Amino acid sequence: MLTKPDGSLHRRGVAALPRPRLPDGPVRQLFDALHDLHHQAGWPSLREMAGEVGCSRTTISAAFSTARVPRWGLLELIVETLHGDVEHFHRLWLAATTPRPPAAETAASAGAPAAVPRQLPTDVRGFTGRAHELAALDPLLRPSGPAPIALVSGPAGVGKTALAVHWAHRVAAHFPDGQLYLNLRGYDPDQPLEPGEALETLLRALGVPDSAIPQRESERAARLRTLTADRRMLVLLDNAHTVAQVRPLLPGSGTCLVLITSRDTLPALVARHGAVRIGLDLLTGEEAVALLRTLLGGRVDAQPEQAATLAELCARLPLALRVAAELAIARPRLTLADLVGQLRDESRRLDLLAAGDDEYTAVRAVFSWSRRNLSAAADRAFLLLSAHPYADLDLPAVAALLGLDHTVAARLVDVLCQSHLVEETPMGRYGMHDLLRAYGAEQDHADAAPALTRLADHYQAAVALHDGKWLVRELPNLLTLARTRPSHAGPLSAALSGRLDTLGQFGAALALHGHALDAAGSPEDRAGALNRLGVTHRRLGDYAAAGEHHRAALSLYRDGGDLAGQAEALHGLGIVCWRGGRYIEARDHLLEALALWETLGDRTAQGTVLYGLGTVHLQLGEYRQAIAHHVRALGLHRDTGNQLGESRALNNLGAAYERLGRLGEAQEHYEQALALNQKIGNQVGVAVALTNLGNVRTKLGRWDDARLCHDSALPIYLEAGYRVGEADSRCGLGTLELRQGRHQEALEQFHLAVTTAREIGEAETETSALVGLGDTLSAMGQREPAQAHYDAALARVASTGDRYEEARALVGIARLHGATPRAAEAWRRALTLFDELDLPEADEVRRHLAEL
Length: 852
What we know:
The chain is mainly alpha-helical. It has 43 helices and seven strands. It is globular and about 110 Å long.
């Protein structure tokens, strides 16, 4: 615990940690209590708390400052460390993680943390039988030891999902950290869920924002394992097709129980992962009649023989039994004998049409029989809903498919849901069992083609009308639209490019722009798709692929004489070269792009290019030009009302002033950028401004303020998945730790910065962190490792031309070698560079040379 030898609490703490902005409610009460406890404990530092808890300072900072309820295990350790009332905090935690009504969730969606997921579908009405299978599942609730994987396998329509959902509801209380549900659509004719898509859905359910979801499947799987570690959760993976589809979705923690349903026996899951398989066969005759009794009541007891015959005609499949029972309920005057007679006639008709043996003839008979009892409008709706290729539809999409207004469409789907021919999800969307879809696909669809065109046009028009939540929810269907209807791929790619970029949906963007490229019917369309792919690859840190796509787009645009397209491609190439440290190339590309935008008179685009151009000039040590470009960009952004661009120009002006030693002006611009980003809700922009403020306040000796800035910024980067910012933040923290003499902590941060920068190809931050490592090792007296890192920094600047970082590395070498000829040579070379750059550091170097 954080105590002195006499047992009293530490009182040498730092300033209070930042609190997340939250609406009134249980979540805010929890965070208020946590911060009050931190105050009562004497404001111990992040370092002290992290040492006691046994985790990183970043984890502790995020627990206090990120608007998401921390997992109980972490919170419990923090409370114990601060001598708090654990039981009281556990009650607060339970209240904060209890799911709220939909309206409350909507109101708090901007800032409140996600509740513990409770995703199980509604329990099955009138669930009957399966006592043996339920008894086989119950022992899986082990009080200790690793939680197993359970596989429920059996033929289509046999009730696998019903059994799994029913048992999951029975045991949900054993999994206080939540229950996840995902339909893998393994046997849908056109839409099996890929593991990457499935992981994205699960991560989102666990509270990971879209912009923070990794792009690679392996990284998504690793994030899932991290988030589920030590959590007691139930994961229900429904309708799996192969082990390959399931394997990436398995939590690494033994505390999570995974329940899988599949038509396949998945032997590799049993052999390799130790899954317990529970085979599910047709209901027994007794169970089938019992299900009918549950659904039809006394009519079964009045005619037990007819009920038994009806069960056999339904092949003792729960799905067919429920459809048949609904028909009986809808016609209370008919006896079961009458219904059996009708179904027998339908079965004979289908037997005559069947080509050979077919185990589902009886099921088809039930479906066909149910269709004959629908109105013509409802039957048409059923056939059209079985014809579309999408996973599920919301009501507006259903209305578009049917060509009806929402009210009429809603009445029809209610009829189909009541007849168990359509399923409504807890999210108010409509889908269909794959057996019903396969049956519907066999039928005549006279007006399917125009209906599918209406639906495609609906999605194309809707993308401009809805917010980001709708877009993320409909992304699977939009990608299906782009894949199955090439004429829509290009327009969707162009319309959604900016929004997918803002939302951080880079994986979806790659797929969408790839479909657009495949469907491109002209050089212009191909160039547009290539350019959008270039932007997306750049966001993902794949600068080689980004440059290749931008160059291919530029060639096509030049062939077609498209000046705006050329400017966009040149701008993309310029940013790729800047990120990769090829500053001269970057400058040339951006100047050419700027000239084209000036010719075309596009002021907004000019401001965007000037932002990149100013940053490139900063890296080239051309500070006056950098300031001129940023001032001009700032004016353009203010004239055009582009507040996002304005905030970026303010940040970059601050960076130029900081480099020139004008720290007061730099701090003023960073503070303006911070306020503007807070106003427009740009969280990553807030973090960038905080990082810059942390750096300048370190130089001003305001160390507590600097640490508060960095500790507030880093969790935002980590949550958003913005790796450039993460590397910058760690480099800034490393510098702060070095200034305060915390050498081991500085090494840790600089190493993390170098690793991250190398992974994404960020040349500037990598070089700066290498110099930081050299400075830290030098301060620790480790001369050879320090020299090695300075040499690595000099090798990096040999390819980038970054004279400022070259000068910093030379200063480090000079300090390392003391009063030696090698040190004097390093001082002289550094002085030449600082003089060329006209930076104030030149005066300090002159003093050192004079002393030598």
